[in-house]
Request: fold
Amino acid sequence: MVISILSWSILEGFKKEIEDKIYGLSGHIMVTKFDLNRSFEESPFDKNRAIYLHPDSVYGLRSVQPIIHKPGLLKSDSEIVGIILKGVEKTYNWELFNKNIVEGKVPAFSDTTYSKEVMISRRIANSLKAKLHDTILLCFVQQSPRFRKVQVSGIYETGLEEFDEHMIMGDAKLIRRLYNLSDSIAGSYEITVKDFSKLDTIALAVEANLDYDLAYMTVKERYLQIFDWMMLLDRNVMVFLVIITGVCLFVMISTLLIMIMERTSMIGLLKALGANDALVRRIFLMNGAYLVLKGLLLGNVIGLTLCWLQYQFKLMPLDPNTYYMSSVPIAWTWDIFVLMNLLFAILLMLIQLLPVIMISRISPAKSVKFN
Reply:
């Protein structure tokens, strides 16, 4: 029980941490203009579409947020790196992204002009040798290169190399000003849903409400390799839990067989005194049930205590470059915990019937004589 609780809590915690990091940077559904462009820079379109103006028309949507991506360069006094600026608006929902912020805060937005603050990743900050509140040079490469001095308002870290190496966050107005775009222009929509388990169904509803020149892609399709990898983790843990369950059942059968062999003379005596096979079986089943309940109780106490200690104090660290997080994550999946307890209890009680059948084969005369 201890191993099962720890395994499932760590697996679900690991998946949730990675999923939250991805959703915080790209949402659940990305809508772009339908074309053959495969670069980081999207084809612009007017954001005032039905899906944006009336998101309630699609059941299950939480938010529809227009954003713009533009590739460029960041230069400090001594270093230069290639980046992708993700331009967001003042109304952008930072709820999913906030847990990735390790220093500072999100850029401050203005109603009258564009913000000169950006948020960069720790990896980019280390490459540029830049710190919080430093001023760095942002350059967009085009026929007439455009330069702007920006200030580092915050530093984030997801542990996901694909994001941390290139992505910075800033004001969409900055991009619109440099490229002479109107305030109604967007590069894509970032859509979040209320229930991720219904993502595929909601995505089809989104597609039905899109204009003919727009196309969508779910986060599962966009980062297929990451979600396939997490699905493989699910299978590995399930195989591990099946093996553990098999070991538990084998140990329980062995324990009851030993108990019956040690109490052979007692069984014979009880039968000689008039006890039938059903009564004797009930005695051993009740004793087995006591062992099962005691084991489940101790397993839950120890397993949940270890999970709580790791959740609160981060006792087991991890290498972020390898595992995408700095410590072993824990998820509190109470419904799974209850289901595991019921499953173990039912299986262990049913498996006890096999050795208990031997009781009916014990002869009182032979067992007492043997004694």
